[in-house]
Description:
Layout: H1 28-48, H2 51-59, H3 70-81, E1 84-87, H4 94-102, E2 105-108, H5 126-133, H6 140-154, H7 159-174, E3 177-180, E4 183-186, H8 189-192, H9 195-202, E5 207-210, H10 213-217, E6 229-233, H11 236-251
Parallel strand pairs: 1-2, 3-6, 5-6
Antiparallel strand pairs: 3-4
Helix pairs in contact: 4-6, 6-11, 7-11
Bound molecules: fe (ii) ion.
Amino acid sequence: MGEGRMTTETLPTAASYIIRQDYSAYSSEQHAVWAELVGRMLPELQKHAAREYLEGFEIIGLEKDRLPNLASISARLEPRTGWNSTPVSGFLPAPVFFEMLASRRFPTTTWLRSRESLEYTPEPDIFHDVFGHVPMHSHMVFAEFLERYGRVCAAISNAEVLEKLGRLFWYTVEFGVIRQDGEIKVYGSGLISSHGECLNVMGGHCAIHDFALDEVLNTPVKVDEMHKLLFAVNSIDQIYEAMGEAEHRAQCGQL
Ligand SMILES: [Fe+2]
């Protein structure tokens, strides 16, 4: 806790990627695009998102009709879990990404997709990063999981091991689903921030297996098609426990 207040001096590798969000530079058209993106996802999410996500949405104070100010979001988030949404210039090399997660700073892009590409952007934008990811950072166990993920990965240089851990990230943080009240609900940012991906799962076009670490670590990621298989946990505790097992295996050279 409290580590979210670290300065860039304590993050030497990340410092050159950290920028300032120029909030006043957003145009009224950009705020309108944000409002449209939120407006088309929220009715789906009220039916299909995990309760942890919906609670987080309220906790961090996301607004429906204007872009998020990252400093305001972080001011609400940090006292709860120590996480901070830190504006960055764009794609980060993996070691920088891990270093930031390990210090509870979530690298957050500040640009927004245009009206012409509402459904898809090849790289994450502020809608994916903030609307998709940040609400979950207000959940205590998820917050611990994500820091631990960064800490473990930061200490690993073996590319094969990192690829396997990348799958754990992909099938939880990005495309995780959870069983709640007898139904499948979404908590992964890639599902939360994509109408098509969310409907693919909710429309029954994707098989759902019970989350099992071995199967997750051995299921390659495909980024160019809708998912055909995802993994459901019964609680967020389960991903924290899986991370502990993955860390143990990595330390023993068994990952
Ligand atoms: Fe993401």
